[in-house]
């Protein structure tokens, strides 16, 4: 999904009207937002955080200093570790780590839904749709979290809904 | 809270600085772990530094840890600009920075090799700082972004050698932060006063950084952003446009000879003198003559008083040796090869005012004069030199005829004068395991009297001059770097004489059988070549107040132009004109390797014409990939791509359509133009891009300026596409007028492009101007504004396509022809087998081989030679015949002589 398209999804889920114009820069097509009130903004997470503030939904960026730092960390993780990833092994490592991390968490910060969940959901979507039933079961915590986010009101929009099976098929693999 | 760090992990720098800034440093428990220890339970790989929060959660991102501290500061809000810097740091800066540090600390690389990957990022920071003219990244006060970026950059930039002084804003920002207490303490703790080497224990456990895909050799342009225009800019562009031809500055009359004029901008341009007995390859051509040509043509378009000169460097051992090989005198060799050079440059349409040579009387006079003045002022030393002599060849070996192991880096094939690997200059006798390059026998050391230029004594003069010139002029970063590192290592006396015959004689008793070493007198060649052009040469060369000297070269030539010649000239106290702008390119590679004459790899000047591809296409592509700032590579596929996409589909398509609409819809006459606000906005965009082009070329950023041309043409194509004049033309009177305006504006943009294109593609430029019948005054001057040079009612000529498509099979056969491996078919069958593509020449060679081998066999049989021997020769013959049959079975067509219209 192109970054501009993703940002437009985000706009919609935040309830913003479509007035922002996006362009893309460089061979990696880094998104640029032309703002009315100053210089343009460059970068997916930068623009996303800007949109969140524009929509007056600052709570999506975290509430305590620690939570804010955690949100920021996963946003950075999204652009440094999820984007540009293509090798099967790299994706497997990514999912394995996330699976372990999410073991005792509902959302990335723990108990609060934040921008980090939204952007990681958008970023991982292309990998998750390709997972086999067995792999989805292997990354059980990721699957649980992903399924939860895609049902969060207004987030998924036109993206294909990924089907997860609730009962275990491969009991031996655990 | 517990912070996990590891010895030498650079991430601890910004974290410690941020913690002490938030006065939290004391609360922090610090645990030192090994670089491979996995602290974060859920991450597969090690990650350092890590902050374990009181909640039990982990922060493993350096900037997230830093921002946690900043969030604690009251009143601090994370704003867009900070976020943008942090994201940029993580995505853009970190990958290139870790590569640079890895090269420096682990691989022991130095200089440009280290700086190259990060240069773009450093420039980005510098530009941002200087554009907003605030001391800090996000404004008047220090922010999280400053701490994070400072911490990331500190290990590299704390070494002054890697803090590019031309990036003034970056330097002062960096130095200001480095002196602050929290930063100083953090630096002390992490680097322990060992500089970047302190990172070694950490970096050596890291995988070697992979350069980002497609980033290692960058031929790709940055995507251009459409800037927003102010009303004022639009109004100014419209006013300028309306002036039309009247807005052109007056033409300066052509004079012969060209001489400096007081009160005018006098531009003297030189390109490095090619060595006469080498046929230049594409890399040589783009490095000096072609780059200088673009600038010279641009300079003339600006109506600056311009003299562009070059010539062949003819003295030296290599010429003597070549003469022996070919059984000619050195002078005959020079005469023969000088013509070859001149022909190649003529074919490439290089607009020299003079293309001279160094073997002239003037060269002797000027060199001897400079020498005498240096001698009289005590800048010449005399000493005995240990020199290598090959007893087998019975001569002293010139540096380039000795090969051995580099005493600095251990490279096996270092030459006697310079090591190709580490770039250091070598004294031939310091080479380990020296060998005579001709006969491979080890030479002996003999002593001989020689003269030296006392560079240490001249160093003060040089530094005073450099300080002045570097502050105000455009030396390329690599040139600055090379000169700086030479000065840092300290100058040593350099020998300026040689035991040779073919050179400028030394006018001193006891030295009658010696000549000046080429590196002393080759740069004087520029002066003598000018002296051969006009007897008033001193008006150019002893006139530093009025003359701006631009010297173009590849980076290996920088020491001679930026250091040795200035030292000689300053020592004479004769007011010589010294280089104000030293423009050095990096290297151009061929496909994935190097050009190699001996292996027959790569395209050489004389072969380019045989490809059937017009000179202007070569010029375009070479300039498009000009190794500006970093090495780049010539690639056949890329050349095809750029020709077909940029020239054919973008530039050619636009200019042709604009012209065709005038011919088809308006009978060849430019229609009336009534500009709407949208048209005016386009006008302003084109003007802006034109001014950008000027700014870039004034700074000799040749490759970037070419992008501006293509951008304008892209705007033009889009404009036609959106406004669809072919539909309006069929409508009402008002509709037809709209079609006229669009066509008229488009054809005027085409006219502007033809002038902007002139430095790059002179023939194509002339063709366009002929097709459009552009008035002569508009052809030879490029103003800073976009003017309407084709007013309503102007009649254009016949329009036809400008470029030819390059086909895949054509390029594929060229690639194979120049790919190397089959330069000469060897008589050994094993080698012949590797021949993949065979042209008519190879078939001829094979036929000759078959005949020759046939004779050998017949002779042996006639002599009734030993059966085994005969059988062996017969086998060879059969193999050759098989090769020949194979070759003739599927001969490839030579590339078609496609010519552009």
TrEMBL record, chain A:
Q: Which InterPro entries match?
A: AIMP3/p18_C, Arc1-like_N, EEF1E1, Glutathione-S-Trfase_C-like, Glutathione-S-Trfase_C_sf
Q: Which Pfam families match?
A: Arc1p_N_like
**Which Gene Ontology biological process is one annotated for this entry?**
positive regulation of cellular senescence
Keyword Transcription listed? The answer is no
Stored SUPFAM superfamilies = GST C-terminal domain-like
Q: Where in the cell is it found?
A: Cytoplasm; Nucleus
Q: Which PROSITE patterns match?
A: GST_CTER (PS50405)
Keywords, comma-separated and alphabetical: Acetylation, Coiled coil, Cytoplasm, Nucleus, Protein biosynthesis
Any single GO CC term annotated in Swiss-Prot or TrEMBL for this entry: cytosol
Oligomeric state and interaction partners are given as: Part of a multisubunit complex that groups tRNA ligases for Arg (RARS1), Asp (DARS1), Gln (QARS1), Ile (IARS1), Leu (LARS1), Lys (KARS1), Met (MARS1) the bifunctional ligase for Glu and Pro (EPRS1) and the auxiliary subunits AIMP1/p43, AIMP2/p38 and EEF1E1/p18. Can interact simultaneously with MARS1 and EPRS1. Forms a linear complex that contains MARS1, EEF1E1, EPRS1 and AIMP2 that is at the core of the multisubunit complex. Interacts with ATM and ATR.
Give the protein's recorded name.
Answer: Eukaryotic translation elongation factor 1 epsilon-1
Q: In the UniProt record, what gene is named as encoding this protein?
A: EEF1E1
From TrEMBL, chain B:
- Which GO biological process entries does UniProt record here? cellular response to epidermal growth factor stimulus; cellular response to platelet-derived growth factor stimulus; methionyl-tRNA aminoacylation; positive regulation of transcription of nucleolar large rRNA by RNA polymerase I; rRNA transcription
Q: What is its EC number?
A: 6.1.1.10
Q: Report residue spans for region: Disordered.
A: 202-229
What are the protein's GO molecular function terms? ATP binding; methionine-tRNA ligase activity; tRNA binding
- Residue stretches making up the WHEP-TRS domain: 842-898
**Transmembrane regions listed in the UniProt entry:** none
SMART domains in alphabetical order: WHEP-TRS
Source domain of life is Eukaryota
| Domain GST C-terminal span(s) in chain numbering | 75-211
Q: What's the short name of a Pfam family annotated to this entry?
A: tRNA-synt_1g
Q: Where is the composition biased (Acidic residues)?
A: 220-229
Swiss-Prot/TrEMBL keywords: Aminoacyl-tRNA synthetase, ATP-binding, Cytoplasm, Ligase, Nucleotide-binding, Nucleus, Protein biosynthesis, RNA-binding, tRNA-binding
Annotated compartments: Cytoplasm, Cytosol; Nucleus, Nucleolus
The family database entries (Gene3D superfamilies) matched by this protein are listed as: 1.20.1050.10, Glutaredoxin, HUPs, Isoleucyl-tRNA Synthetase, Domain 1, Methionyl-tRNA synthetase, Zn-domain, S15/NS1, RNA-binding
Catalytic activity of the protein: tRNA(Met) + L-methionine + ATP = L-methionyl-tRNA(Met) + AMP + diphosphate
Q: Cross-referenced InterPro entries, in alphabetical order?
A: aa-tRNA-synth_I_CS, Anticodon_Met, Glutathione-S-Trfase_C-like, Glutathione-S-Trfase_C_sf, MARS_N, Met-tRNA_ligase_1, Met-tRNA_synth, Methionyl/Leucyl_tRNA_Synth
Its Gene Ontology cellular component terms are: aminoacyl-tRNA synthetase multienzyme complex; cytosol; nucleolus
Q: Does the keyword Chloroplast apply?
A: no
Function, as annotated, reads:
Catalyzes the specific attachment of an amino acid to its cognate tRNA in a 2 step reaction: the amino acid (AA) is first activated by ATP to form AA-AMP and then transferred to the acceptor end of the tRNA. Plays a role in the synthesis of ribosomal RNA in the nucleolus.
Member of which family?
Belongs to the class-I aminoacyl-tRNA synthetase family.
Q: What is this protein called?
A: Methionine--tRNA ligase, cytoplasmic
Q: Which organism is it from?
A: Loxodonta africana
Task: Identify the taxonomic lineage of the organism of origin.
Answer: Eukaryota, Metazoa, Chordata, Craniata, Vertebrata
